[in-house]
C-alpha cells in the first residue's frame, strides 16, 4: 500500500469526515478536520464493482483520481460490490464463488493500473457485499499483501439487524480481527432502517448502539496512527472531541 499518514498528526488522532449523502455533497467526501488547504484523505467511488465487466469497472473507479481535490499519495475508497440489482439489497449470490471470482478479476485488472498511478484502493466492507465480514477482509489483505489494496474498517457495515442482540460481541470481533491491519477506521453509530431492513450509519454518539461499544474496542485494537473517519454532522467538532477523549 502506498504512503502513510503517521507523520501528519503527531500527537493527535488523525480525523477526517465523510458525507453520508454524496448526492448532496462532493464525492471526495473525506477532508481534514482543519487546515491542510483542502487536501483530502481519499477520493470516493460509488461504483458497484460487480455491476459490469472488470475493465469497465476499473475505468469507473480510477476516474475518481481525476476529481479536482487531491490526495497525497492518491487514494480511492470503494465498495467491494454485490450481484444484487441495488447496492444494499441482500443477495446471497454475492458471497458465493462466482462473485468472489469476479471480484478477484477486478483486483487483477486494477492492481497494475493503481501501481502505475502510485495509488492505493481501500475497500469499504459491507455485510451484503463480497467483503462481508472481518475474516473475509483479513484473508483478502493476506492474499493481496504485495498489491496496492487496503481495507477501511467499518464495524457498523458488518452488521445486520438480527445481529444487534449480540452487538458487543460482533463489534469486538471486528476490531480484534481488523483493527491492526486496517488502513483507516470509520467510527459511526448505527440504527435499523425498517424500510430497507438493514443497519445504517449515524453520526458517532447517535443511533441504537452505545457509543462505548464502538470506542472501547477501537481504543484497544487500533494503532494510534490509524486515520479515523467520522460521518459528517452539524456538531462534528463535538464528535471529534468524543474520539480524542476516548483515545
Number of domains: 1
Helix content: 25-40%
Calculate the mean pLDDT score and round it: 86
Shape annotation: globular
Q: Which CATH top level class fits? A: Alpha Beta
Strand content: 15-25%
Q: What order do the helices and strands follow?
A: EEEHEHEHEHEEEHEH
Number of helices: 6
Low-confidence parts, pLDDT < 50 over ≥5 residues? 3-11
CATH architecture: Alpha-Beta Barrel
What structural category arises from helix and sheet content?
alpha/beta
Radius of gyration: 17 Å
How would you describe the overall organization of this protein?
The protein has a single domain (15-246), classed as Alpha-Beta Barrel (TIM Barrel). Helix content is 30%, strand content 16%. The chain has helices at residues 54-62, 97-117, 134-143, 167-178, 211-221, 236-246, and strands at residues 15-18, 31-32, 43-44, 75-79, 120-124, 149-153, 184-186, 189-193, 198-202, 228-231. An eight-stranded mixed β-sheet has the order 2-1-10-7-6-5-4-3, covered by helices on one side.
